[in-house]
Amino acid sequence: MHPNSEGTFSMPSSHTPSGLVVAFDDDHAVANAGLALTATLTEWLGVEALVDELVDLGDRPGARRPGRKVLTLLHAMVAGGDAIDDANLLRTGRTQEVLGHRVMAPSTLGTFLRSFSFGHIRQLDRVAETLLGRAWAAGAGPGTQELTMDLDSTVCEVHGHAKGGAAYGYTHRLGYHPLLASRADTGELLHLRMRAGSANTARGAERFVNELAGRVRRAGAAGPLTLRATRGSGRARSSARAAAMASGSRSRSARPSWSRRRSPPSARTPGPTSTTPTVGPPRWPRRPLLARQVVG
Length: 296
Hints:
Layout: E1 2-3, E2 9-10, H1 35-45, H2 47-54, H3 66-78, H4 95-99, H5 106-114, H6 118-140, E3 147-153, E4 156-157, E5 167-168, E6 174-176, E7 179-183, E8 189-193, H7 205-219, E9 225-229, H8 234-246, E10 291-294
Parallel strand pairs: 3-9
Antiparallel strand pairs: 1-2, 3-7, 4-6, 5-6, 7-8, 9-10
Helix pairs in contact: 2-3, 2-6, 6-7, 7-8
């Protein structure tokens, strides 16, 4: 953007983020200027057109033009918003001209989100997978290199008593307990499944791993796939191992590191004979520090 004769800024004739020319002619910083980079990426990936094509809410309220609504939510989150009303930040000044799409009002966004069912969320899953494939095809993917994925869950705290699915879990905080898979080398989020706040750590892990393996393969990952689970995900590791075996792929676990090891009988030092009966075998640590599941 360049200032015109009246001292204001104007857009190039292309009216797209990629046509912007950023110039600083003032000593004052501009808040959220990084949105221009996100807007350029979403334009290059074709996010708005893809959402309009794949997301169909039927005759539900807010069904029209879902692409610009998803982009408004996306840019609001990039700018630090954590509530629907925070989307108003994008309506200040001429921000929407930089974003390259019309910014929707928070009330419209609320109507749009409340119209989603589980099936519509699966449509967004397809959008995410398609965008992942486009980005990886442009050079961001692992290619034939090994792809290591981290499987974990997190707790997203919410406020209010009308949040569908929100419940109290092991943290004793009201919220959700989603399951996530990220790329170990870049931190890129590969797959996400929302779950109720009271869900067990391993709930849905088997299906989640099967979906994850298929997603990254379709996106272009041609090398070995390795799934890592943290120490606190014991049952999730078992479910991941079962998923790998069910899909016909190999599965292996790293050798556990124990806090103490029992010496073999030949190496034990004989002690005084005791007539006290043995109550039971010693208790050994149950959880390995790390498990790696090769899922493809």
